């Protein structure tokens, strides 16, 4: 049975306005997730436009099946990181990167992205490769932990938390999300979300891959092709802002944000920022 995504894409109308899909064009969704943006692009470039979507998370393939059935050869899906899109050997008229975690990943992955449920502390997008979050907490030096919490979580008390982690792991491993919440010592969502964000970024090397991905996707754009990027925290947004300013013709003086109506219907849109640039 084909799974249905519960994720609700953000800033969809704004993305379509910036990219301007046209029939006959070829477009990239570099972060497929639940497929909401992909479907919007397919509808906007009908009847002859094509969308290629990629995602590093194998679970998202289930969400691609209904689009294959509906759009046929106009839609192509590949398990691929967006920093590897040059492997597609395709030039695009427009591309989108939505850097946020989908609701499916947050709510149903079982990989420990959310502090609200007790799950194994994994946090890898691709669960078949690399070090998971529990292993990172058990092996990183105090200095490395402090840097992760301070730089990626923007936590002024990163050193104190690093010492707590080291003290706890001397007694027993930090294996689950609730183990980590207990070490942090608070139930305040604002604090927890930043620490979980920091670990997720470190585990997946997100900021390095973001810069590599922006470069790779831009290399695959046709002249006048548009790159649109939705970020969800200041670390990403700064990288996107500088990249667009340096490598593209900026199309947004300031990042576009969700309307009050969209935030009311989808609270996760509150922190979304959309920037775009055109390739010369």
Structure description:
With 280 residues, the chain is α/β, with parallel strands linked by helices. It has two domains: 12-104 and 207-278, Rossmann fold (3-Layer(aba) Sandwich), CATH 3.40.50.150; 110-205, Putative methyltransferase TM0872, insert domain (DNA polymerase, domain 1). Helices cover 44% and strands 15% of the residues. It is built from twelve helices and seven strands. A seven-stranded mixed beta sheet has the order 3-2-1-4-5-7-6, with helices on both faces. α2 links the parallel β1 and β2 (50-55).
Question: What does the secondary structure layout of this molecule look like, with pairings?
Answer:
Blueprint: H1 12-19, E1 26-29, H2 36-44, E2 50-55, H3 61-71, E3 75-79, E4 92-98, H4 103-108, H5 133-139, H6 142-152, H7 158-171, H8 177-184, H9 189-204, H10 206-219, E5 221-231, H11 234-247, E6 249-250, H12 260-265, E7 273-278
Parallel strand pairs: 1-2, 1-4, 2-3, 4-5
Antiparallel strand pairs: 5-7, 6-7
